[in-house]
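Dear H.,

Thanks for agreeing to be a second pair of eyes. The structure we're designing against is below in token form, covering all 443 positions.
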């Protein structure tokens, strides 16, 4: 049996050119979990090499239980030293058949339509120019039923834009496709390679510090202006430990504190206390910023079990409202928390049902116990995704947060409203008598 050389592994046995005539080019099949129905589906992996480009990994998932499927590509190489920008002049229908590798970090633009797909909003794909257009159309059409119900004018404008995108495939007029990728791992086919393609321009550029952070090759802290020895920088990089007393049994305990940047929100301080004596554990969240000028009211429509996995930052001043249960938890209750929707609902159930002194004992009302039991059962149904409901975070200070899983795009199941605090709210927060200027002057 002949030995397998390193060159054979790298060039022949693992990554091969896509060819319908090569029977050895077969995908590897792996049983994997479907994130739609949580049953087992099949993932197919194909390691291939694109001519005049590089090696890539094509993965395709399909579920025989619910029919869910998706396809994406990943670069099998490292992030390149420079970013790359492809500018293609699409002049004829044959140009629509050009092979395109669009990495997740790439920005796609069509200047003639003032159209742009931002980076990290789509998974990487191996497609054609026509496939990119079809995918853009599908993405815009996905939320059209909701838009037609909520904002018919916007839906009509998007319908018109979709027609413009579809008309591009007729190539009645020349248009430009630009793919700009700071990772350098995107690609547009040159059908006359290795000769120069007059309709395709390739340029390289140096990445910015922000792009390095987005690609994960530079820590976020490198962008900070504070010196490395500052207190704020230390808090970002380390977990600070303080000696305190357990709030439950008063025994000596340790409190861990860390400054955390929540994506698309702000910095918060998370404190956690664990007591070795009685086992009591607690966590608390404080905003790392100032009081906002406007209050925030966040409404999430829970329609799917995955919605309860969203991250939640509930500040001390935030009220929690569940209209379907006619329930409102006032500000101050439960304190500040950084958890998930499921964790918040479980804490509410524990507070209202589990630790409620009116539920236990001989003097408790049977009717009251029954109502609280039904309330707990409804919360369990919401957590399990069996009961659609709205959860509202109303924070007059504006320091609460609920994760938008579609970020940076709008979330169709979530609305965020800004409002001016009332005099009564400012009075309760102690803001009416607060002086931030001239406070040292005598009255």
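And this is the sequence the design step returned. I haven't edited it by hand at all.
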């Amino acid at each position: 049996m002949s030995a397998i050389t390193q060159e054979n592994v790298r060039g022949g046995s693992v990554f091969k050119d896509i060819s319908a005539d090569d029977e050895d080019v077969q995908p590897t099949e792996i049983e994997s979990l479907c994130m739609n129905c949580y049953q087992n589906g099949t993932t197919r992996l194909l390691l291939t090499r694109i001519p005049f480009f590089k090696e890539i990994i094509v993965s395709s998932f399909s579920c025989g239980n619910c029919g869910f499927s998706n396809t994406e590509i990943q670069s099998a190489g490292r992030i390149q030293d420079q970013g790359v920008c492809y500018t293609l002049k699409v002049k004829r229908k044959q140009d629509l058949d050009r092979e395109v590798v669009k990495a997740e970090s790439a920005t796609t633009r069509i200047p003639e339509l003032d159209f742009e797909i931002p980076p990290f909003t789509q998974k990487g794909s191996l497609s054609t120019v026509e496939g990119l257009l079809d995918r853009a159309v599908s993405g815009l059409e996905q939320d059209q039923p909701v838009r037609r119900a909520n904002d018919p004018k916007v839906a009509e404008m998007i319908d018109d834009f979709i027609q413009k995108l579809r008309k591009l495939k007729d190539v009645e007029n020349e248009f430009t496709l630009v793919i700009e990728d700071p990772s350098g791992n995107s690609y547009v086919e040159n059908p006359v390679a290795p000769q120069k393609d007059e309709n395709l321009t390739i340029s390289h550029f140096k990445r910015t510090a922000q792009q390095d952070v987005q690609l994960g090759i530079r820590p976020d802290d490198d962008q900070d202006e504070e010196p490395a020895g500052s207190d704020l920088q230390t808090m970002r990089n380390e977990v600070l430990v303080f000696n305190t007393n357990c709030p439950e049994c008063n025994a000596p305990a340790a409190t861990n504190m860390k400054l955390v940047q929540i994506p698309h929100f702000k910095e918060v301080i998370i404190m956690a206390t664990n007591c070795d004596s009685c086992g009591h554990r607690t966590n608390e969240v404080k905003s790392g910023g100032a009081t906002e000028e406007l209050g925030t009211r966040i409404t999430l429509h829970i329609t799917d079990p995955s919605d309860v996995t969203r991250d939640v930052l509930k500040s001390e001043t935030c009220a929690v409202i569940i209209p379907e249960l006619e329930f409102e938890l006032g500000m101050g209750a439960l304190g500040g928390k950084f958890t998930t929707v499921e964790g918040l609902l479980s804490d509410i159930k524990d507070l209202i049902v589990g630790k409620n002194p009116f539920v236990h004992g001989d003097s408790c009302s049977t009717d009251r116990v029954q109502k609280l039991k039904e309330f707990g059962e409804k919360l369990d149904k919401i957590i399990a995704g069996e009961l659609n409901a709205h959860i509202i975070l109303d924070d007059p200070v504006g320091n609460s947060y609920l994760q938008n899983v579609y970020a940076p795009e709008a979330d169709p199941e979530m609305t965020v409203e800004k409002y001016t605090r009332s005099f009564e709210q400012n009075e309760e927060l102690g803001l009416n008598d607060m002086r931030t200027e001239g406070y040292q002057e005598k009255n």
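Two observations from my side: The chain has four domains: 6-75, 83-214, 238-287, 295-429. Residues 1-13, 223-230 have pLDDT under 50 and may be disordered.

Warmly,
E.
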